[in-house]
Specification:
Blueprint (H helix, E strand, L loop, with lengths): L14 E5 L34 H14 L16 E5 L42 H10 L3 E7 L17 H32 L2 E7 L2 H4 L4 H12 L7 E4 L4 H37 L24 H19 L2 H19 L10 H23 L3 H21 L7 H22 L26 H5 L12 H26 L8 H5 L3 H19 L7 H16 L3 H17 L3 H18 L2 H13 L4 H17 L9 E2 L10 E6 L3 E3 L4 E8 L11 E8 L6 E5 L12 E8 L12 E3 L8 E8 L7 E3 L1 E10 L2 E7 L13 E6 L2 E5 L8 E4 L5 E6 L4 E2 L3 E10 L4 E10 L8 E6 L2 E3 L2 E10 L4 E11 L3 E14 L21 H5 L1 E13 L2 E10 L25 E11 L5 E10 L5 E6 L1 H8 L2 E3 L4 E10 L3 H6 L7 E9 L10 E6 L10 E6 L3 E3 L4 E9 L8 E6 L6 E4 L3 E3 L7 E11 L3 E4 L2 E6 L22 E7 L5 E5 L9 E2 L6 E5 L1
Parallel strand pairs: 1-2, 1-3, 3-4, 4-5, 6-17, 8-20, 11-13, 12-14, 22-30, 39-48, 40-51
Antiparallel strand pairs: 7-9, 9-14, 10-11, 10-16, 15-20, 16-17, 18-19, 21-23, 23-28, 24-27, 24-29, 25-26, 25-28, 29-30, 31-32, 31-49, 32-36, 33-35, 33-37, 34-36, 37-38, 39-41, 41-45, 42-44, 42-47, 43-45, 46-51, 47-48, 49-50
Helix pairs in contact: 1-6, 3-5, 6-7, 7-8, 8-9, 9-10, 9-11, 10-11, 11-13, 13-15, 15-16, 16-17, 17-18, 18-19, 19-20
């Protein structure tokens, strides 16, 4: 920013003049008057007496405190109530407002000394604004004037005694002296007040007094007198300060600024209003200017300032005053208006003729206003607006410059462009050191490309997600880089014009341009750019642009003829460019690097660079030119290290030769030859025929001698066809043989597109897997004592060449076969596969719950001894409720069993292992994957009978054994079916046991059992043999698992199991078992209608009947008892009738009415309907009402029947009614009455002899709803 006046760029803040703080002069030390003899010791001068005046120290500290408040800076976004404080003398004078004094009659029509209307002004007659106007308001005219003065204090008189009264005469003299001194001080303040009032400046006086004076009662009256006499304002115009500490002085400075800040704003506001009034008088919307006759460039005309110029002048002044007030938005608006009007003026060469003084001043003003606008945008973090305005400014003036004849072909144009980039870079750098942050410029999320409805947006909207780099504000390093590039263009235009200007009239500014050190300026800009790029680059960045800047620095050092420094930069950059294959950037770097090496005379570096540059040659002529330069160096010089080969590593660079290695087959067996062809070719744009290649060494993988090709010029017969040459090297010789192979002669000169094919074969005896390939190819140049080795990577080529694996089949005519596989550059050597016969024997299908045997028989039909290991994987089944696992030797798993060793199997020997599969739950297919791994071992290395040998699997074999190994995979699917099918028949009977009384406390005990509600369930289990092979059932047992709701009373298998089993059962055979279960229901089971878990399960022990008549392994199948239901009875009547009776003998019958409802009582009536045809005489209740039945209670009635007929006689009908919701007459309990006729709900009467509700369950664990039997009328057998 040094190219512009500092006044036009600094941040404007209110200005405060501080007077009266002049430091007292230091006392001089007198020289000694007594001469000193040479031998006499000189006496040091006496130390000066310590200053007793405390105000000298106060003034010094006040100066430091005030000057440290705020520094003048270009970047200052903070808006605090701070001033720019300037220390001045008491007698400082302000510049005159007008050239004539105020008392002159022409004062009203006079103008400012800086006005374009004043002939003596530097802006007369058509100047816009001068930096001195800014300097006037920042250094010559303040907004506030602070005057520090010393308040007079009479010396203190010490009384002889504290009791002595004060001396009246002394007090009178003291008062008169203070009044005289105060009057003089008021006169001085009034004089300064007059000068400040003329300019509208606020005057504030600070009186310095001692602490003793602060306690003086006369201080207030003295201050009032001084204020009135001097005419000071009543607000913030008079302060008193005593000697205090430094921290308190800083507080005083801040409080002083706070008190006077509003006054300063009013000062600049009044200036703005005055300027606005002037602007309104001069403003014109359209200029009515008649252009004068054209004059020659550079001749200053005496035309007055145009209205556009006055608009620029007034808008700029109002912008400055708004900036003084801290109103950034207002200042930005006025700066923009001034800039817009200035662009209108530049658009007309009649208004601002090019290359004139006013034109140059206007250009500087436009650049300064652009910086101001950009800075104000950046204050508000409006990065895009700031960059947009700056780019617009550069674009506009670039267009103007072309019209002025200062286009891209002139150095002046590029000088101005570089200056603009540098100004922006310096502004951003200052901002980044403060509070400015840069945008991240990260791309928008891709999810924003889809609307809320899910439909993709239009293509134009997708393009909107992108970002033009010129529209994105970047860190200052980028703009320093652009300034450096523009400076390079400036130097190029200057050098181009330098020859043209010789002997002719030089262009304007040519003499000044000759004084500029362009290269030093370019280095400075590039260095700053590099440092800032390193500072702002992310840690994951590759720094490619940073390396490019380093390259430009190195190139500038080359232009500055500092070749050794440039070489150090080139070495650092080239490593990254080679590794990342930036060939287009590496090629010019190598050329400049080679030029530096030529200047320094480093022949080895020159040879190295030339060899690398040959690989990057673009055409045949370039490659031949580089070869000629290399041959010239090799012939005219000797290497520094004579006798040692000079290595040029081309592994990261483009090679000299395109190399392709092709094997005919992808893999071979041990000791089997694998044919290969190695092709060495040059691309069509490169000629290596002049390169003195002496040998080409082809190095294979470990274990083989390298193949060395020695150059031999071709004979006349061989010259006829040199496009493709074939060299046969035969079979490669292993290193374990004593005789090394001889060198093979071949033509090692390549023209454009020529190819040398090296054909041979290779074999391996190494056991196991081996990858054989070319490790490196070394090309050796030999000339005049030089030996240059150039290692090449195999299977690399230039970009112009395409590596297509092809096999040469014929030379005449030339014919190739394309190899159609991916990796042709290596061959895999494998062992012969092992010969094993594997047999899996089993009797399908498998049965559930059975240990199903699978016999694995392995026979070695190979001539090698094989160590065999078996892995078995049981695949997960997709059958629901199915469970499974396998047993192999002593291992059991539901998934994988690894490393079951069968030992070492000799040739012709078999080994057998049995695998057991166990499936349960549900039938279905089970899948097994069996892996048989064999490893070749030496006979006797592992004993076949060694049971303590550690099992070996594919992961635990030794390295040697793992190489010669083989694996066979077999998958078998085994169907699984059930061995037994179970069906349950469940019959429910109500219990005859009486319900416990409601108040019986034993019902709350844990061991209390009450089956009066649940009754008894009779479970008949029918088991059927469903296995096709037949079964031998050894036993059937019921394992009781009583629970709080159900318990087994008895079971038929407890007594008859020993008689029935063991026994054979063929498919379809059945056997049964009956068990009785007592049910004790709880209230929650009754209400929720829940099922009761069966109190036990059946265990059936059985064996499979094998085809040979034998039996398989013992298996156990378990069936759980079915879930049981609770009878859902609410009000029930149970009739208990004996099975037979005697004629004419009294027979009792009983009726029990139970209320099993959980919460409702019952009102029950019983009626015995005796028909005349009935064969009984009845004694008992005929018609009556029972007591109220509470929930959980019962009532029992009895009758005596005397039969009068023999045979099956029908019992008299008993009718039970629930009349809870009917109205009954008042009647005694149990009193017979034939007049009762009540309607109600009928209650079911159940004959306990025929109480038999049945349900069938097919699958164990499932419940079913009981279906009651349809009973007829109850009868009794009457015997005579």
């Amino acid at each position: 920013m040094n190219s512009y006046p500092a006044e036009l760029l600094v941040q404007l803040v209110p200005v405060m003049f501080v007077a009266g703080l002049d430091l007292p002069p230091e006392p001089s030390i007198p020289a000694p008057s007594t001469p000193q003899t040479p031998g006499q010791t000189q006496t040091p001068p006496p130390a000066p007496a310590k200053t007793q005046d405390p105000f000298a120290s106060l003034i010094a500290r006040l100066r430091d405190a005030l000057q440290s408040q705020r520094k003048v800076a270009i970047w200052a976004p903070e808006r605090t109530r701070a001033f720019q404080m300037i220390l001045v003398g008491k007698d400082v004078r302000f510049p005159p407002r007008k050239l004539v004094p105020p008392e002159d009659t022409a004062y009203a029509s006079a103008h400012s000394p800086l006005s374009p209307l004043t002939p003596s002004s530097p802006l007369y007659p058509d100047g816009l604004i001068a930096p001195i106007w800014i300097r006037k308001h920042t250094a010559l005219v303040p907004s506030v004037f602070v005057l520090f003065l010393r308040l007079f204090e009479a010396p203190a008189v010490h009384a002889r005694s504290p009791l002595d009264p004060p001396d009246p005469e002394h007090e009178r003299d003291k008062t008169e002296e203070e009044r005289r001194r105060d009057n003089d001080l008021s006169t001085e303040v009034a004089a300064r007040k007059k000068t400040t009032n003329e300019r509208g400046i606020k005057l504030t006086v600070v009186l310095l007094a001692t602490r003793r004076m602060l306690d003086d009662p006369s201080l207030d009256s003295r201050l009032t007198f001084i204020r009135k006499q001097s005419g000071l304002d009543s607000r913030a115009a008079l302060f008193v300060l005593s000697p205090v500490s430094t921290s308190e002085l800083h507080d005083f400075a801040r409080s002083l600024q706070d008190a006077l800040y509003e006054t300063a704003l009013e000062y600049y506001t009044s200036h703005s209003k005055r300027v606005r009034r002037k602007r309104n008088r001069h403003s014109q919307s359209v200029s009515s200017y008649n252009p004068p006759p054209l004059v020659s460039m550079g001749i200053v005309s005496t035309r007055p300032l145009r209205p556009e110029g006055w608009t620029v002048r007034y808008e700029y002044k109002m912008a400055c005053f708004a900036e003084f007030r801290g109103e950034d938005e207002v200042a930005l608006k006025h700066y923009q208006d001034a800039y817009t009007t200035l662009m209108i003026m530049f658009g007309s060469t009649a208004i601002l003729p090019p290359r004139t003084k006013r034109w140059a001043e206007a250009k500087v003003l436009a650049d300064a206003i652009n910086v101001k606008i950009t800075k104000l945008y950046l204050y508000n973090q409006e990065h895009s607006l700031a960059l947009s305005h700056h780019n617009s400014h550069m674009r506009r003036f670039a267009d103007f410059s072309r019209g002025w004849g200062i286009g891209e072909e002139t150095f002046e144009y590029w000088s101005w462009m570089a200056r603009q980039h540098r100004v922006l870079a310096e502004l951003l750098e200052q901002g980044s050191n403060s509070s400015l942050t840069f945008p991240t410029n990260s791309p928008s999320s891709l999810t924003a490309s889809v609307t809320s409805s899910g439909t993709p947006v239009e293509l134009d909207a997708v393009r909107a997600f992108g970002l033009n780099p010129n529209h994105a504000l970047q860190h200052p390093g980028h703009y320093y880089y652009m300034a450096a590039r523009c400076t390079e263009a400036r130097r190029e235009r200057f050098l181009a014009n330098e020859g043209i200007s010789q002997g002719t009239s030089a262009a304007p500014g040519y003499a000044n341009e000759k004084k500029v050190d362009h290269l030093a300026l370019i280095l400075e800009l590039y260095t700053k750019s590099y440092e800032l790029f390193k500072k702002h680059s992310s840690t994951t960045s590759q720094g490619r642009l940073t390396l490019w800047i380093v390259y430009r620095i190195a190139h500038t050092y080359y232009e500055s003829e500092k070749f050794d420094v440039a070489i150090r930069f080139f070495e650092r950059i080239a490593k990254t460019y080679r590794r990342e294959k930036w060939k287009h950037m590496l090629r010019p770097l190598l050329s400049t690097w080679y030029a530096c090496a030529q200047k320094l005379g480093d022949v080895e570096l020159m040879a190295t660079l030339l060899v690398e540059m040959i690989g990057y040659a673009q055409d045949v002529d370039e490659s031949r030119t580089l070869q000629e330069d290399l041959l010239a160096i090799l012939k005219s010089s000797v290497p520094v290290s004579a006798g040692k080969p000079f290595v040029v590593d081309l592994k990261e660079s483009d090679p000299l030769l395109d190399t392709t290695l092709v094997f005919w087959t992808p893999e071979v067996r041990v000791n089997e030859e694998a044919g290969f062809q190695l092709s060495l070719a040059t691309p069509t744009n490169m000629d290596l025929s002049a390169l003195p290649i002496d040998t080409v060494t082809i190095t294979f993988s470990d274990g083989y001698y390298p193949v060395v090709l020695q150059h031999s010029p071709p004979t006349d017969v061989q010259v006829a066809d040199t496009v493709v040459r074939l060299v046969k090297v035969g079979k490669l010789v292993p290193e374990d043989e004593d005789e090394e192979p001889e060198e093979i002669c071949a033509d090692l000169r390549w023209g454009p597109g020529e190819r040398l094919v090296v054909s041979g074969s290779i074999s391996s005896e190494a056991p196991g897997m081996l990858t054989v390939g070319v490790m490196s190819i070394t090309v050796v140049l030999a000339q005049n004592g030089w030996t240059i080795e150039m290692p090449h990577e195999p299977c690399v080529s230039h970009n112009i060449s395409t590596l297509v694996p092809r096999w040469l089949t014929s030379l005449q005519p030339i014919r190739f076969i394309q190899i159609g596989r991916n990796d042709c550059s290596s061959v895999v050597v494998r062992h012969r596969p092992h010969e094993l016969a594997v047999s899996l024997s089993h009797q399908a299908p498998a049965l559930l719950d059975e240990e199903y045997p699978i016999v694995i028989d392995i026979t070695n039909i190979d001539e090698r001894h094989l160590d065999v290991v078996v892995d078995v994987l049981l695949q997960p089944t997709e059958v629901d409720q199915a469970a499974q696992y396998i047993i192999f030797d002593d291992q059991r798993s539901s998934g994988l069993i690894k490393g079951i060793r069968l030992g070492t199997i000799a040739p012709g020997v078999s080994a057998t292992k049995t695998l057991y599969l166990v499936g349960s739950g549900a039938p279905g297919d089970r899948m097994l994957d069996i892996s048989i791994q064999s490893t070749s071992v030496q006979p006797g290395s592992t004993s076949e009978g060694d049971d303590n040998a550690e099992p070996r699997s594919s992961s635990s074999l030794s390295e040697h054994a793992a190489i010669d190994s083989c694996e066979k995979l077999q998958t078998i699917v085994i169907p699984t079916s059930g061995a037994l099918t179970v069906t349950y028949d469940v019959a429910y009977r109500r219990s005859k046991n009486a319900m416990p009384p409601l108040a019986d406390l034993s019902t709350v005990e844990d061991d209390f059992w009450d089956d009066s509600h649940g009754g008894v369930a009779v479970v008949t289990t029918r088991i059927e043999c469903s296995a096709l092979c037949g079964l031998v059932v050894e036993s059937l047992k019921l394992h009781r698992q009583d629970n709080p709701l159900a318990k087994v009373l008895d079971c038929s298998s407890d007594e008859s199991s020993d008689d029935m089993f063991p026994d054979e059962y063929l498919p379809g055979d059945e056997f049964c078992n009956v068990s009785r279960i007592s049910l004790s229901a709880r209230e929650e089971q009754v209400l929720g209608e829940e099922k009761i878990t069966g109190p036990g399960d059946y265990e059936v022990v059985w064996r499979r009947i094998l085809p040979d008549g034998g039996c398989g392994r013992r298996s156990i199948t378990r069936f759980a008892l079915p879930a049981l239901m609770i009878p859902q009875d609410e009000l029930i009547a149970l009739l208990d009738v004996p099975s037979f009776a005697k004629l004419h003998v009294s027979t009792p019958i009983h009726l029990t009415v139970r209320n099993q409802h959980s919460s409702r009582s019952a009102n029950v009536t019983v009626m015995l309907d005796l028909d005349p045809s009935d064969a009984f005489i009845v004694a008992g209740l005929r018609n009556g009402r029972l007591p109220i039945l509470l929930p959980g209670s019962e009532e029992k009635l009895s009758w005596n029947l005397i039969p009068i007929e023999c045979g099956h006689v029908k019992i008299p009908r008993i009718k039970v009614m629930d009349v809870r919701r009917a109205a009954l007459p008042s009647q005694g309990v149990g009193v017979p009455s034939t007049e009762v006729d009540v309607e109600g709900d009928g209650v079911k009467v159940v004959d306990v002899r025929a109480d038999w509700n049945t349900a069938r369950v097919q699958i164990a664990g499932d419940g079913a709803v009981a279906i009651p039997q349809q009973d007829g009328a109850s009868t009794i057998l009457v015997l005579p």
